[in-house]
Fold RNA polymerase sigma-70 factor.
Amino acid sequence: MADLDEFEAHREHLWAVAYRILGTVGDAEDAVQETWLRWERADRDAVDNARAFLTTTVSRVCYDLLGSARARRETYVGEWLPEPIVSAEPTPEERAELDESVEVALLAMMERLTPAERTSLVLHDVFSLPFEQVAEVVGRSPEAVRGLASRARRRVREHGPRRTVDVATRRKAVEAFVGAATRGDLPGLVAVLDPDVVWRADGGGVVRAARQPIEGADRVSRMVLGLVTKWYLPGGMSIRSCAVNGWPGIVVLDASGAVSVVFAFAVDDEGRITEVDLVLNPEKLTHVSL
């Protein structure tokens, strides 16, 4: 029982590591469960620090899983986005505990990294593991891991979404987006979107969705208004504000109250939306409820 209690004390941390490396709820849960099985078999006398041991173990499990996950995603139909974590808007205290590493746009961009780059970046930059400990996970020297993390950091800066960490700015932009969309206000939508905004929709081949990104404020605005006409205006559907991976977003609920679409947004310092990410694949929404 003591073994379980000690493991449970670190479960939330282990899940956080796994989700950031893998990007899916199911895979993260599988990784944590496998870590528990390895913890059960471990020689406790050889474990000096349970948290360090468990963090290294779950990271190794995730690193091994990344290979098969990447293979699945290469055959995925259309755009692949991470499974969203939806909750009520966080309090200021909860907000302080969140970080940019769980943003949908950033997790999606990290799909461009190699498994070793992604694992090194997450473990060192997000969870502050020393390069020596990360090296044990990816099977490289500490010097090589330092290079992996540096290369991953550079790629994130170059290709990651432009975004602000100011929650009020983000919330205002999302509210303006929803208001303009539900009014059918094309100029209002264009105004809140960055001229080079990117729209990504993940239907997984299950739900009809654009299979390639759509770029540009005018094209994205017209796409939004088309969806409003299809989903919202006929009635039966509703829109609710929420937190998506800790940041302001929205969900679309069907007539039964079930979540049918999750919207995540990246917003720049000027309050313009630079990326709109939609998860429509119902297989990625089974864990979502409000």
About this structure: The chain is about 55% helix and 15% strand. The chain has two domains: 2-86+102-159, 167-284. The first strand starts at residue 86 and ends at 87. Residues 50-74 form the longest helix (25 residues).
